[in-house]
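Course assignment 3, question 2. Fill in each field.
Student: A.L.
Task: Predict the tertiary structure for the chain below.
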Amino acid sequence: MPDFQKLDSSIPVAPLAVIVMDSAKELGTLVNDHLVNFRHNFHNLETNDPAFQGYSRDNYMVRYSNPRFGSGESKAQMLESLRGKDVFILTDVMNHSMTYKMYGYDNYYSPDDHYQDLKRVIAAINGKARRINVIMPFLYEGRQHNKNNRESLDAAVMFAELYKMGIDNFITFDAHDPRISNAAPISGFDNFMASPQFMKALISNIPDLTVDKEHLTVISPDEGALDRAVTFANVLGVDTGMFYKRRDFSKVVNGSNPIVAHEYLGSSIEGKDVIIIDDMISSGGSMIDTARQLKLKKAKRVFICTTFGLFTNGMESFDEAYKNGIFDAVITTNLIYQNPEFMERPYYIVSDMSKFLATIIDFMNHDSTLSSVITPIEKLHKILEKYNSRSAKTEDLFD
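Answer field:
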């Protein structure tokens, strides 16, 4: 638990308001509940101080409307005043479950539709809110982060556009390439990792896991995810390895060059548990192939950790791979829409990020350093020591 006493000596930037876009309702409700709990039970503030009027409330979520015309056009309408408020807008551009009517037909929301709705909300409150902060866990168009000849650079265009519209801070998670912040280099940009929450999910759901160098290794499925794997390995205090993807650059299949083979670089994993970590799973073919290669190298168990489980081709290939013993569990976060059908799988574990996200909002509202939000590696190592020695109950380790 972060040290909330650090906030008691600082004044909030402005009264807090949270706009939860329809795309992020489930996550936003959990975040709001944590904020209410924090400010009722963990803050020790002078309630009659004018600077803290309206500080402790039973709900921080703002009522708004996002109606659409029959032509598919839309608008944003705020149903309460946000003048002078410190506004946090939470959106999930990957929620593919929502529909709208257009010429009588049902159309599913695309990331483009969610992004346009976000801009409509910003346009509706700009000039009135004290500060506008955008929380976009999955970075819109984040996979299109490199510009080649005759290509658009969509992520950078999005980032620059939002700052031109007047936002003050942008918060995202596990960005595919955080260097897109260079599109607005003097702007506020925070990119958080899910590593501690993955650790919590693993030790809470895998009771016989031993977290040390002799029993566990963290693997990067490709060279692009190596930094992420090294960070997670440092959190766990274990070794790391990686796979190199050999691709056929003479072909393009589904927008990318097909993978010819996976080449492993690292020490022996025979008899060890292995964690594969990456920012996202799209179709999942590459991840399953990596897990298969690890089992061929006699890995004991394979756990797949991914911040964003998109599963664009469904879960059938994962069901088959699990049945064949290729992997043992998939751990993903609730930062994007979770298909209820997927969560029924026995191998599917959801790492709840709502409390961490609420803490970020709470500290940012006070303009307090966010280093206080991130659990230090030394503390995480002490937690793991207690876990490995079984000297404390798992549910008590993260108090």
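Instructor remarks: The longest strand covers residues 239-247. The chain is about 30% helix and 20% strand.
Grade: pending
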